[in-house]
């Protein structure tokens, strides 16, 4: 079994061909963008974690359909202007938010079970 499953489908002569330097340059930028996306997502999850704690303490439900609708409408317009498929933008947003809701439900359950203190820990976005 090859280390990379994609190699299995690639003919040997294609694998031996040198990679054009432009592709290597593009891949370096793709890697930079992927790193930035991971950092941005990590910061976003820190913010949503805090919202989840505040909601649990305040007795608010994890999901907020009004906010969902506003976010989807706004992001689809942003995607349209940026040349990104708006349906993809909506699905990507939904993928992230479904994970956020899962976190919020867990935080609320822990809070209800008394496994979390009533007081909120200080927000530290750089921890
Ligand atoms: C973070 C919140 O909770 C949920 C998650 C959202 C998000 O990840 O952006 C948006 C709305 C809510 O469904 C919020 O209400 O702001």
From TrEMBL:
Specify whether Isomerase is a keyword of the entry.
yes
Q: Does the keyword Isomerase apply?
A: yes
Source organism of this protein record: Isoptericola cucumis
Do you know which Gene3D superfamilies this protein is assigned to? Chorismate mutase
Pfam families associated with the record? CM_2
Q: Which UniProt keywords apply?
A: Isomerase
Tell me the first and last residues of the signal peptide: none
**Which residue range or ranges hold the Chorismate mutase domain?**
17-108
| InterPro entries assigned | Chorismate_II_sf, Chorismate_mutase-related, CM_bact, CM_dom_sf, CM_II_prokaryot
User: Can you tell which superkingdom this protein's organism belongs to?
Assistant: Bacteria
Q: What is this protein called?
A: Chorismate mutase domain-containing protein
């Amino acid at each position: 079994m090859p280390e990379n499953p994609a190699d299995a489908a690639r003919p040997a002569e294609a694998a031996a061909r040198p990679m054009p330097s432009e592709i290597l340059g593009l891949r370096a930028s793709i890697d930079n963008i992927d790193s930035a996306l991971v950092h941005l997502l990590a910061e976003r999850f820190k913010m949503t974690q805090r919202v989840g704690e505040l909601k649990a303490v305040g007795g608010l439900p994890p999901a907020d359909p009004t906010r969902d609708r506003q976010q989807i409408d706004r992001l689809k317009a942003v995607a349209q202007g940026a040349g990104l498929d708006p349906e993809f933008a909506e699905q990507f947003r939904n993928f992230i938010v479904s994970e956020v809701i899962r976190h919020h439900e867990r935080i609320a359950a822990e809070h209800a079970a008394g496994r979390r203190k009533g007081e909120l820990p200080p927000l530290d976005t750089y921890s």
